[in-house]
Amino acid sequence: MEARYEMVRGLFHIGRRVATGVTLALGIGAASFGPAPIAAAAGYRTANFVVEAPTDALARKIGDAAEQYRHTLSVEWTGRPLPRWSRPCPITAQVAPNLGAGGATSFVFDRGEVFNWTMTIQGSEERIIDSVLPHEITHTIFASHFRRPLPRWADEGACTTVEHPVERARQHRLLLEFLTTGRGIAFPEMFAMKEYPADVLPLYSQGYSLARYLIERGGRHKYVSFVSDGLATENWSAALEKHYGVTSVAQMQHVWLAWVKQGCPAPPASLAAAVPAPAALAATTRGQSPDSPPPSSAAGASAPVATSAARTSIYAQARTSGQPAAR
Ligand SMILES: [Zn+2]
Question: What is the mean pLDDT of residues 53-74?
Fold first, then answer.
């Protein structure tokens, strides 16, 4: 039995696991992006990617960045580069200054193998390069490494840790909002989630926050080992105790919540010193410009339905008014 898996980010929380549902999943993914506002007019091929983007220069820039992230992030997470895929991953990029940042990556797991990659990304050039692309590439690295689906919190949370600081800060602000408005997810429930919940944004912000907490205390390799053990045993409490000395999922929630209430302080120096510096990440070129709000953000913020506004506030701020909303 083969299952197509979609990793989605931002607005496009349509990911679902569909047994032998390749056609269906592709249809959903295509529909979620609506008509392309910018034609993907140029192509560029690297060892592992085939990029379609509006211009030759953008296609080349995205393809080269994808290869660099694929290498550096694989080393960062697993300690070794990813072997070349048997077939390249197609990337379709829609790039425009005021286009909301988002992406979706899908692939097929079958008998321990992973293949049939597709990746669709959109946003400003800067956000694509510094956030969307490393996020989506991390999904492909995890899929290649684990060869099976991860709990959604562990997957999306870890992928968000490689985004630009502006995006991570936004997730933290949303987390505080969710935790104070009854939208937090109890850890036993979150650890059991293999699909996206209906209220998906808290999963992203909580997953990011917990992944950050764990990575700050043990580094990325340990995080990957922890997830490996949890997947293999389905006993996440035991995996937490083995790798982080936290006795259970419930206790993890208690410890994490106390940390958030304290303002997410850095770990003790002894713990922090044991975590290797993310040299490969730091070496990757990233945009550092301030997060200037796009002109359309005011309209998004004043959306009449509070729940709807909160659900779309993360990546919807820069959406152009002419673009249909994702569902
Ligand atoms: Zn994602």
Answer: 98
Mean pLDDT computed over every residue of the chain: 78
pLDDT tens sequence across 174-190: 999 999 999 999 999 99
Phi, psi torsion values for 69, nearest 5 degrees: -65, -40
Tens of pLDDT along 235-247?
A: 999 999 999 999 9
- Residue 313 in this model has a pLDDT that exceeds 70: no
The strand order across the sheet containing 89-95 reads 18-19, 3-9, 102-110, 113-123, 89-95, 49-53, 42-45
Whether the predicted pLDDT of 198 surpasses 70: yes
CA dihedral 307, 106, 152, 233 (to 10 degrees): 160
- CB neighbours of residue 308 within 10 Å: 12
How many angstroms does the Cα of residue 269 sit away from the middle of ligand 1?
31
The contacts of residue 87 (CB under 8 Å, 6+ apart) are 115, 117
265 alpha carbon to ligand 1 midpoint, in Å? Answer: 26
- What's the CA angle centered on 280, arms 277 and 284, to 5 degrees? 125
Distance between Cα 310 and ligand 1 center (Å): 18
For helices 201-233 and 306-316, the axis angle rounded to 10 degrees is: 70
Specify the pTM. 0.76
> What's the CA-to-centroid distance between 8 and ligand 1, angstroms?
5
Cα of 135 from ligand 1 centre, angstroms: 6
Q: How far is the CA of 200 from the centre of ligand 1 (A)?
A: 11
| Half-sphere exposure for 169 (CA within 13 Å, toward CB) | 5
The residue-averaged pLDDT of 221-240 equals 98
The pLDDT of 67-96, averaged and rounded, is 96
134 C-alpha to center of ligand 1: Å?
10
